Amino acid sequence: MEPKIVEAGAGRSLNVLGDNQLIRLTGEDTGGALTLVEQANPPGVGVPMHVHANEDEVFHVLEGALDFTVGGRTRRAEAGAVVFLPRNVPHAFVAVGPGTTRSTVTAFPAGIELMFYELGELPPGPPDMARVLDICGRYGIRFLEPAQPGDDVAGV
């Protein structure tokens, strides 16, 4: 593993079911230690209640705000806030603005970027939920509220 500087704006751009991502560091870059993703989303974009079996996450809100729901309680994380979400803890989040919410998400250990790559390759339009759930399940992500065909998994 070698040190690495990732210049501003550099990385792999993805749209993962409406979630605008820039993959900044991968498991390949970090010897499997972590994945670092930048998100930039308008109000209403997020991920419904789900749980990670394999990684812990740290969100750092750079601009705007995210609402996080954990343990039946929703709290707002505004610019400058840091949120730690351990694996096996169900959570949901949604961008609430105002305007574009920018944040970083660091996942420990790495690997979740591989799921994002697969999801980012799905065709535009309403997602095939069976396919989405299969991809997520293979990476240890389980949705806790039943997703049905036609659901927008990026909207909470």
Architecture overview:
InterPro entries: Cupin_2, QDO-like, RmlC-like_jellyroll, RmlC_Cupin_sf. Residues 42-101 form the Cupin type-2 domain. With 156 residues, the protein is mainly beta. It has one domain (12-141): Jelly Rolls, CATH 2.60.120.10. The protein contains three helices and eleven strands. The chain has helices at 27-30, 112-120, 129-138, and strands spanning 12-16, 19-25, 35-41, 46-52, 56-63, 65-70, 73-78, 82-85, 91-95, 101-108, 141-143. The model is unreliable at 147-156 (pLDDT under 50).
Brief characterization of the structure:
This is Cupin domain protein. With 156 residues, this protein is mainly β.
